[in-house]
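Q: I'm writing up a methods section and want to include an example of the input and output format. Could you take the sequence below and give the corresponding predicted structure tokens, formatted cleanly so I can copy it straight into the document?
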Amino acid sequence: MRKSLEGIASLIDAHPHARRLLVGYSGGLDSHVLLHGLAMQRQRWPDRTLEAWYVDHGLQAASAAWGEHCAHICHILHVSFRALKIDARPASGESPEAAARRARYAAFAAELGPDAALLVAHHRDDQAETLLLQLLRGAGPHGLAAMPAAARLSHGWLLRPLLDVDRAELLAYARAHGLRWIEDASNADLGFDRNYLRHQVLPLLRERWPAANRTLARSAQRCAETAAWLDAEAAADLADAATERSDCLALPALQALSEQRQRNLLRFWLRRLNLPIPDALQLQQILHDALHAAIDRNPCIRWSGAEVRRYRDALYAMPPSAAHDASHTHIWRPTATGWPPLELPGVGWLRMEETVGAGLRAEALAGRGLLVRFRRGGERFRPVGRLHSQELKKLLQEAGIPPWERNRLPLLYLPSSPTLPHQGGESDPLLAVVGLGIAADHAAKPCESSWQPVLQSPSAAGSGIV
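A: Here is the clean output for your methods example:
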């Protein structure tokens, strides 16, 4: 295990900006060995802190007692301890394993700063299991690359310093140091695919091929190299197909590629947007229905957690739209310090950024609240640069705003009555259509104090700025 401890030190030394070392500590054998090994070596990093985080998924009755055990071990090792309680209930159609993993890493990611690295105890047996699971799911090079030793997680890093260590080595270390760890009974449940591979399949493989763990890990590394090469190719293609919006691709550039490069680019683009990757059939549907549709068609291809739409000569990707009541009117009142963010359910957050010479004249808004509505039909608007007002519908079409976004663009009205009626009247002037423009009569002049309305959508990809 001495060589393995050196490997841990090398990985940590390769990330000098990580001043906080946070161990994902479940109390089980693997994470206990990792925590103990780090605690025994902490003198190597006198300018770094060592902490242990226990995640209580709330799925087992013993989880609270396990947390107490972890706290006790950390007290003995003189390691700072923290417990995070999360909701790991699976969504519809989601496996309990996947739900727990998603919730766990989301909790970690929310807490990681740029000076932190989360260390987890995945080892070579885990890597072999992951590769086989991905192979059985029909994954490509990215899936078969399994788990990297280092990856970004939120603003910090996710490190796996034990990937070159077999579980047998960890067990020997634990016994040699008299460690006490938690045995989770669910790890023996063969109803879980990973447990079935761990207890039924991999032991048979190692009987025939004793070096199976190393061989599978080597294959994962080669797939990781292939995946990196494919990503470099996709990044170059994305540069040609990119638009002003990260969630939008220019179709002519995409259509100019071979089908293999189209597939590679689409997967790469969707990963960049943190959207689920479609399966082979769904990807083929995107290529067939979206790329080859007539210019006046707006096909939409949906799969769990994402959808792709075509509008004119562009392809858009997004999470499924949340429910939105376009008939509701919101009242937006300023405070002494400015405009507090206004939540628009199903749409996002509306904000006002203080600026000069752009947006709405501050003088016109002084001491006044606004009514925030959505399209109801028949609105007319004269944005900056237009001599006359026009139907808002035509302006949105001219601006190339996709149809599914038009009814979600906030319309800002200045009520004629200072009492801010809940519905507003026909005489209330339309000051701005967020995502389209500012009304010419209320736009700030150069060097004039102003407020710029900004819409931040839930996915942040489709944010619009007036």
